[in-house]
Design brief:
3 strands, 6 helices, Rhs_assc_core, 3-stranded antiparallel beta sheet, 173 residues, 8% strand, alpha+beta, RHS repeat-associated core domain-containing protein
């Protein structure tokens, strides 16, 4: 795979690897390098039954579902303008029918966040967010779309790939 020495100017819209060459150069024709990804995120997320919204709204769903911050709250809660309840989250199964949590999509997403070896910059947290959604059972396309939507919230508060983030205590070894 080809790689560039500087980041893609469209950020995560080009894919989770900010330094990668186009995944399909015959299909991704963009002479200025500014086009949005060719996928239709709302359709992809709807097809997979993915519910994304404000954490404050999704945590009210209840039942076996949990609201999961796509970007780990402990990593990004120091970003100016970030709000715990306004941050983008996804509804994931958080409990089994017997009340346990082990092996649920939410558990798997959390384990991926806890074992991430990167951190300190929002760009690295984007990779962790994407991987945690894949671990929760989303397709690569839906994981990318959900991460991009969450990244949109962070961009709205003024954050970018180079914005400093915290390394959560549960990640430190």
């Amino acid at each position: 795979m080809g790689r560039f020495v500087s980041q893609d100017p469209i950020g995560l819209r080009g894919g989770v690897n900010l330094f990668a060459y186009a995944p399909n150069p015959a299909r991704w024709i963009d002479p200025l390098g500014l086009a949005y990804c060719p996928c239709k995120c709302d359709e992809i997320l709807a097809k997979e039954g993915v519910t994304i919204g404000r954490h404050g709204d999704l945590k009210k769903i209840g039942g076996l579902q949990d609201s999961h911050h796509i970007y780990q709250d402990a990593a990004v809660n120091g970003i100016a303008g970030y709000d715990y309840n306004d941050a983008t989250a996804i509804s994931l199964q958080g409990r089994n029918s017997n009340g346990t949590t082990r092996g649920t999509p939410h558990y798997n997403a959390n384990q991926t966040q806890k074992t991430a070896t990167n951190g300190g910059l929002l760009g690295g947290e984007s990779v962790t967010a994407y991987k945690s959604l894949k671990a929760a059972g989303l397709s690569p396309e839906a994981s990318l779309c959900a991460t991009m939507k969450a990244r949109g919230y962070l961009k709205g508060v003024g954050a970018n790939s180079g914005t400093s983030t915290k390394i959560p205590l549960n990640r430190r070894r």
